[in-house]
Each structure stands twice: as C-alpha cells, then as structure tokens.
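Need a sequence for this fold. Nothing fancy.
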C-alpha cells in the first residue's frame, strides 16, 4: 500500500514538473505513426511534454509566424528558408528524410509504373484524364505536387473534373483516392501506414526529384518573446541525438523503413 502510494506521488510529481511546449507538425509526419514512438521517449529523456498541432506545412508556418507554437517540423525547403529569412524562425535544422511516391489503381490504366521519371508519369495521368486526388491544402505534399506538375509542363488550373483538390490531410486524401480508385502523390511513410489501401498500389518512385526532407525550425524569440526557446532548443538537441537516430532509423512497417535520420551534430 505504502509503495503504491509512493509510486502514485512520484508519478504525479513527475507530471506536474513536466514542461509543455507546442510543436506544429505535418499531417504526413503524424500519419506515419512515428510521433507515437518518439513522444513518450522525449518526455522520459527531456521532461518535455510536446503538444502536437497537426496541420499542413503552410498552416504550420503561419502558426510559427503568429507565435502560436514554439517550433515547427515540416517538409518544404523553399518555404522554410523564407520563414527563417523573414525572421520568423531562428534557424533551420534538417532531421530526417524519406521520399514521395505516386500511388494509383493497381491496374494502372495509364501505365505510370513504366515511366522513366515523375514528369512522364504525371503527363500520362493528365493526358489520360484519370482521377487524381490533390491535397489542395498548401501542405508540403501539395507544394511538391504543384512543383512536379509545373516541371512536367502541366497546369492544374486548366484540368477538368478528373483533378480533385480535396483540401485535406494526407490520411483523408488517401481515403478519398481509395474510394475513387484514383492516382495521388503521397509521402512513403503515410502510404505504408495507411490501412485502407483498397485497390491502390505504389506504382512509381525513385526519381531524385521525389526526395522529401523534414526540418525543425524553432520560432524566433526575437520576434515572439513568449515562445519557449529553451524548451525548443532542448527538443532540438534530442531530435539530433544518437537516441533519436536509433528510433527514427529503426521505425519500420512490414519490414520497410519509413524515415532515414540525417541530422548533423
């Protein structure tokens, strides 16, 4: 009885002593399931209770600009560099990467499985006017998709009803694609962790332009003096540590690794 009471008191004390901080993360990162692995260990090692705000990259950056979070973890390099360049972020630190992949009907009616590059695959979808689901939410994945269309010489604004911008996160967008038997651009981690694949399959990957880097950006305390800069720095130290590398590199689904740690000391 005494031991149980002592354990309960220690647990309550630990909870009361935990420092909270707010981290805006992408839906693709959250949908991967990696946050469920990392957050308990972060709390144990650092005493930080990291509260996630799960949004697209564009919204995460806007939360940082407003000082509504202490740091962000996103995947759109040009937008991140602009965020830091405008003084909203103190710096940008690369943490890990995976890649984008093109998903579609297993029957692959336009034959993107044999495409030589992403531009050829997307051109085949556009010319065939096959259903394509776009995140349409200013996320990192959406920004990448638009850049890929542009590189292929295609303009989504001129597409017909086969192009469906849903304005949703990665999981919801994949669900829509599954229901429509449509093509979609996804990050590999969200696809592997997606439980409603239906008739969809991974059809195209491997083009270097599909590289997908995630970076950590603390909000600049010079812009918002109320942000928890010390907590954000403590989290950054952990995210770039050997422990983080071990957990990130070891996270796999069905024997397939979802992320590769590449933070530098």
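Here you go.
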């Amino acid at each position: 009885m005494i031991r149980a009471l002592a354990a309960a008191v220690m647990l309550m004390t630990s909870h009361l002593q935990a420092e909270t901080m707010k981290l805006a993360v992408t839906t693709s990162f959250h949908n991967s399931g990696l946050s469920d692995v990392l957050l308990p260990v972060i709390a144990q090692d650092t005493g930080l209770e990291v509260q996630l705000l799960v949004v697209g990259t564009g919204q995460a950056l806007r939360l940082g600009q407003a000082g509504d979070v202490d740091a962000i973890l996103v995947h759109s390099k040009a937008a991140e560099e602009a965020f830091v360049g405008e003084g909203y972020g103190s710096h940008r630190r690369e943490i890990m990467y995976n890649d984008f992949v093109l998903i579609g009907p297993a029957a692959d009616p336009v034959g993107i499985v044999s495409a030589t590059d992403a531009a050829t695959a997307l051109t085949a979808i556009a010319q065939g006017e096959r259903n394509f689901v776009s995140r349409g939410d200013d996320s990192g994945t959406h920004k990448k998709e638009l850049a890929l269309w542009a590189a292929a010489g295609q303009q989504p604004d001129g597409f017909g009803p086969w192009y469906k911008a849903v304005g949703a996160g990665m999981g919801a967008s994949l669900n829509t694609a599954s229901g429509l038997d449509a093509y979609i651009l996804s990050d590999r981690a969200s696809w592997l962790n997606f439980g409603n694949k239906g008739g969809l399959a991974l059809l195209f990957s491997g083009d270097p332009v599909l590289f997908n880097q995630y970076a950590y950006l603390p909000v600049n305390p010079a812009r918002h003096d109320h942000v928890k800069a010390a907590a954000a720095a403590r989290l950054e130290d952990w995210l770039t540590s050997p422990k983080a590398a071990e957990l990130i590199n070891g996270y796999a689904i069905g024997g397939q690794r979802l992320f590769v740690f590449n933070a530098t000391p």
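For context: The CA atoms of residues 102 and 185 lie 5 Å apart.
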